[in-house]
Amino acid sequence: MSKYSNVSIKHLQTVEERKDSLKVRIPVFVDEQKYTLESELDIYDDVSQHFVAYCDKERQDGTVEKHVPVGTIRLTPKPDHLAKLSRFAVLSDARGLHIGQQLVKAFIQYCKENDFDKIVLHSRYEGRGFYAKMGFVIEEGDDAIFDEDGAPTIRMWMRSL
Question: Tell me, which GO biological process terms does this entry list (predicted)?
């Protein structure tokens, strides 16, 4: 198993840079979770902000690969100062290192600094505990479990940023 160090979060600025987010999304969503490539690559990519977590990766032979994309998160702007958090993923061998928490914190900070006052996300039902620890809540009256791409899903909110 690889070792990771030196985590950094980058807000991607170009289409070329955005390819790094796909180096995480495709292995996680298509290869691991078995979503189709067509459902993963959607119309919102071009109008969204993308963030990637990079690490240095130490291989078993001791060599180090610098600046390897290991996590990603996407912000899609919605009306009324609402940000939608989506396409959040961390490579399987980089999980447990709090990279996901760092990505969500960077996402929230970006929202605060850029005129968003609330965040919504669709969590797979079994993943809702992670988001709750990050400050998201399931709101009464908006608490129905629904199907999204074949997975039980729940909407969660963070308001008053």
Answer: UDP-N-acetylglucosamine biosynthetic process
**pLDDT, tens digit, 9 for 90 and up, residues 100-140:** 999 999 999 999 999 999 999 999 999 999 999 999 999 99
DSSP 55-121: EEEE-TTS-EEEEEEEEEEEEEEETTTEEEEEEEEE-GGGTTSSHHHHHHHHHHHHHHHTT--EEEE
What does pTM read for this prediction?
0.93
What's the rounded Cα separation, in Å, for the pair 10 and 122? 23
Domains and CATH numbers, the chain: 3-116 (3.40.630.30)
